[in-house]
Amino acid sequence: MTGKIVLVGRTADLVARSGKSLLNTRPASSEDIPALAELYAAAYQASSTPDDSNVTSPEEAREVLTKLFDGEFGRLLPEASPVVADEDDDIVAAALVVEQRTGGGVPEDPYLFELFTHASHRRQGLAEQLVRSSAAALAEAGHERLSLRIPEDNSPALALYLTLGFSRWQEAVEEDEI
């Protein structure tokens, strides 16, 4: 198992230069859970960088997403959680953001809980555009930062986030702990 790193980005820096997303997106809703679960599981099964904490089946994905929409990981921000559908209205990519991730170890900022894309739609810039779309919604709502946590050996994700301007975040150490 690898370690995890926490990254943080300034929403103003993440917003697309035009200020508008080039994607046709809509907010995620609880009605999307079945479709999101299928996509979530498939995206990680097709991933070239498996992670011990990823879901392994649509059923497990549905359980995680149900908990997410029920607020167990923090309050979901639908306006900052866009989904992209194809011409058949099938969801092919999604970014799911909570107001603040429960459990600690991350900044007290909105948190990108998951970002996933169907294998047949990768390498088209959807992930970047979804992050930018989420950041635009967060900036409009007055949030200055967006945080996330990824496995340190997930090179494709790390490259994406560093290219977008995210930087490593470390929890402040209390002076009496030094």
Structure write-up:
This protein starts with a strand and ends in a 9-residue tail after the last strand. The chain is α+β, with helices and mostly antiparallel strands and 178 residues long. The protein is built from 5 helices and 7 strands. The C terminus is likely disordered. 30% of the residues lie in helices and 22% in strands. A hairpin with a 5-residue loop joins β3 and β4. The strands form 2 sheets. The protein has a 4-stranded antiparallel beta sheet, sandwiched between helices.
SS elements, strand count:
7
Low-confidence stretches: 48-52, 174-178
| Main pleated-sheet profile | 4 strands, antiparallel
Structural class label: alpha+beta
Q: Nearest-angstrom radius of gyration? A: 16 Å
Apparent shape: globular
So what's the oligomer here? single chain
The whole-number mean of residue pLDDT values reads: 88
Strand content: 15-25%
Helix content: 25-40%
How many helices? 5
Strand order of the largest sheet: 2-3-4-5
SSE map:
Elements: E1 4-10, H1 11-14, E2 25-27, H2 33-45, H3 58-69, E3 82-85, E4 91-98, E5 111-117, H4 126-140, E6 145-151, H5 155-164, E7 167-169
Helix pairs in contact: 2-3
Quick take:
With 178 residues, this protein is of the alpha+beta class. It is built from five helices and seven strands. Helix 2 packs across helix 3.
